Amino acid sequence: MVKVPSLVSLSIDAVKGELLHGDDLLPHVYELPPELFNSLVKCLPPLALQKLQSEMPFKNYDDCDSTSDDFKNGRKRGRNGNFDTAWKALFKLRWPDLVDCVQPVDWQQIYWETHVQNCLDEAAELALRPSFSGFLGEIQISENILKYIGYADHMSNSASDYMKLSYHCQQFGCYTRCLRLQNVFCLVESCQLLRNSKLQSLVVRRIRSLEHVDGLCKLLGQNCRTLISLEFVHCKLSSSFMEAIYGSLNLRDAETCQLQHFSVSTSSFHETDPSSLAHRLASFLSSGRSLRSLKLCDNELDWNFSRTVFSTLLDASSSISSLDLSENNIAGWLSNFNRRSSVFLSSSGEAKSLPSLRILNLRGNDLRKDDAVSLRYALVHMPSLEILDLSDNPIEDDGIRSLIPYFAEASKKCSPLADLNLEKCELSCEGVTQLLDALSTLGRPLKSLSIADNGLGSQVAGALGKFWGTSIQVLNLEGIGLGPSGFRKLKDVGMENLMLVEINISKNRGGIETAKFLSKLIGWAPKLIAVNAAYNLMPVESLTLICSALKTATGHLEKVDLTGNIWDYQPSHETMLAEFQHNGRPILILPSSVASNVPYDDEP
After folding, report:
1. Phi, psi at 552, each rounded to 5°
2. Which residues touch 253 (CB under 8 Å, ≥6 apart)?
3. What's the predicted TM-score (pTM) here?
4. In 3D, which of 403, 363, 401, 361 has the Cα closest to residue 385?
5. What is the pLDDT of residues 202-225, one digit of tens each?
6. How far apart are CA 137 and CA 170, in angstroms?
7. Which among 114, 400, 421, 426 could bridge 389 via Cys, Cβ 3.0 to 4.6 Å?
8. Could you read off the pLDDT of 180-195 as tens digits, one per residue?
């Protein structure tokens, strides 16, 4: 039997349509009883909700929560909590995969910001075609996007302003704080399109020509007072480019320039004299008094370029808190750093340092044992260092041994170092055992350690058993070759009240011994939240052992990854998934397809 719509629902549907066509109904809508008004708010499409909220008189906000600033022609307006709930529902309806990834103060703002980004992305696809000619603002927005905001059903003709990119930028650009722009939008015209924006974060891609640079610099100048983060991806940079950026951001004026995060990744530096570009970048960095984060990742930088940048930061005693030089080729960049090196002393004889540096990422730089020796002396001048990533560098056992004295000394000085990443460093069981023995005796132990993808073998289990009796919280042992005997040794250690929160034991070919160890670990670590035990050649009976441990567990486990093991997904597993859940989601992640059931093969 067809449900007959109520008079209220029919009236709401009629009002929704009228709100998109004119303003005549607005005064009457604002006088509706709260129950009807709130019901209407929940049903409106974005354009109608925008109009209703933007034009609402202050006197109608009797029971409002002024939690944030809404902008209409630059004016502050109050807001009602019901509006925010409605905007969140609209965001979730349109971008269900993103709703858990954002935590905005204002859902109206993030809705229109994401909408503008969608419009720009769609327009970029058209503008990048060789056949495109004309103005960016004249590009028409697809019917699919227009339907989402509630306009497609009311289109009168194809020439409507609603269909043009310029309309969406001008009407909703005031809500944009973070944008990603292709090079086609790094033109002077974009400054007009985005004139109402107050950008705080900007990512630009494929800047290659002088025209791109000129347009980008005008856009940066337009937002220099609000811009906090600037990132270049797949760009070609030169000293003249850096000079132009330097000027547009007005870096020397601390009151004007607020730039805190500067990033260049997967890009190339083109200059006949590389040292000139390095010095230009160094000048740029030393002028940025507000700079807190620098990322130069995967740019084919050499040792000389990196040394110039690092020395400049050190000479200025920069207040930078994060330095990322990963995925370059900078072996030898600290060769002039040693115990008696003058590079650590200022002209007045005082020690130089990077007092605020918390994160140092040197992953994938082909660093060798000699680099580790030099790094030991450089690290002493980073008293606030918390996270050190040396992964994917063949420093070998000799390299890690040279760093052990630094770890001991840092602990004595109450250094905040808490996170150490040594994945894929060509370490052996002997070198890692020495490291773990040293770390086990520190007065201020680590919180997180990764020694993944080093061929350590089962013999390392003894040192591991001793080490995780410290307050280690996150431990990555992926692909270290524990095998069945290694897991058996770990199981026999018999620790209790471990501080572990996350552990990765995947790709260790432990078979049934992996499950036996895991069933013990769940009881030993009451704070354990996440376990990755994928690709361990565990047979199907492993699941029974693990589920038995989960039934008696008193902890807070949220995720146990068992993908890639040698059993087929069966309908009976549904019962297990339903029994063990956290916040409505299954704790167990099981093999679900033929592809994921292929055993992990770590043989070359």
Report:
1. -100, -5
2. none
3. 0.88
4. 361
5. 999 999 888 899 999 999 999 988
6. 10
7. 421
8. 999 999 999 999 999 9
